[in-house]
Design brief:
It is a single chain. By secondary structure, this protein is an alpha+beta fold. The chain has a domain of 125 residues. It is built from 11 helices and 6 strands. It holds the Pfam family DRAT. InterPro entries: DRA_trans.
């Protein structure tokens, strides 16, 4: 039995408009309804090989393909040719970090235009600081940068940052834009650094999980109403619209420390932006995975 709420009604209206431009959700093998990604949650353009209407759809969750950011592999072809020759994961991580440092002058900020008399020193605002800041506070400045990067590259709009974002003229959205701008100001091609981090993450996931398209990941939440539900499939499954970027974990036992309800999702590998074990000492914690948003069929259970 499918229940309808405001989000469901909005999705239906968006679905009618999508039919006019030729996009209709494809029924999934799990029996979930064909619900398109609402237009209010996506941009008409992005910087990868699939539009947001497709990569953010429920169909994509069940039948994903690889996502590639425009020009990243071509620009850094030498790095990935080197990685192909290395069998040890630690050696590959070391090679990646050396390449990142050399490409963006992370160890030589003066080569990137920073000067000692700058009124604001942002030389240390690099990709590592962004992911660490995201892990510490997803609603902080670094979190705003990460969510903004997803919006720019994948075309998925943020739905929450310190509060729900439904009206782009309200104070919550304005604060998000201020944080995002402050986080990017004076930095050294920060979003391009995140592009390369994502592309390397995808490379490592493909090598560590050959032939696999999904990982089963978990998220602890305090209130199910905090997630936009577009369809209630049965007593244990629902279709939700996730924020542009959300934290999940591979450790089911750790997930219950973060809320009274457990969400379980089959997450496409191509929608994992990074994970804690990707690089040495990048993050320490509960096997966190940063998951790119859109529509997801999730299981739910109370502890």
């Amino acid at each position: 039995m499918q229940t309808e709420n405001h989000s469901t009604s909005s999705a239906k209206a968006d679905g009618e408009r999508d039919k006019e431009i030729g996009f209709v959700g494809v029924p999934t093998t799990s029996g979930a309804p064909a619900i398109p990604l609402p237009k209010s949650a996506r941009l008409p353009i992005n910087r990868c090989n699939l539009p947001a209407a497709i990569l953010g759809s429920l169909t994509f969750q069940h039948a994903p393909v690889a996502l590639e950011l425009d020009g990243v592999k071509e620009l850094h072809r030498g790095l990935f040719e080197l990685l192909d020759k290395l069998d040890d994961v630690k050696e590959r991580a070391h090679a990646f970090m050396l390449h990142m440092n050399a490409s963006f002058f992370l160890g030589q900020p003066e080569q990137a235009g920073f000067t000692a008399d700058s009124t604001l020193d942002r030389s240390r605002a690099d990709y590592l600081r962004m992911v660490r800041g995201w892990a510490f506070d997803a609603d902080g400045r670094e979190g705003a940068v990460m969510k903004g990067w997803v919006e720019s590259r994948f075309g998925l709009l943020q739905r929450y940052h310190g509060g729900p974002i439904r009206d782009f003229s309200d104070d919550t959205y304005r604060r998000y834009l201020e944080m995002r701008s402050a986080g990017l100001y004076g930095t050294n091609a920060l979003e391009a650094q995140l592009d390369l981090l994502y592309t390397y993450c995808q490379y490592e996931l493909a090598r560590s999980h050959p032939g696999k398209m999904h990982l089963t990941l978990y998220r602890g939440v305090n209130r199910m109403d905090d997630h936009e539900t577009l369809a209630q499939l049965d007593g244990k499954r629902r279709v939700v619209l996730l924020n542009s970027l959300s934290s999940f974990t591979a450790n089911k036992e750790r997930a219950d420390e973060f809320g009274d309800y457990l969400l379980t999702a089959e997450v496409p590998l191509s929608k994992i932006a990074y994970y804690t074990r990707l690089l040495p000492d990048m993050l320490r914690g509960e096997e966190e995975y940063a998951v790119i948003g859109g529509l997801y069929e999730v299981g739910m259970a109370a502890y």
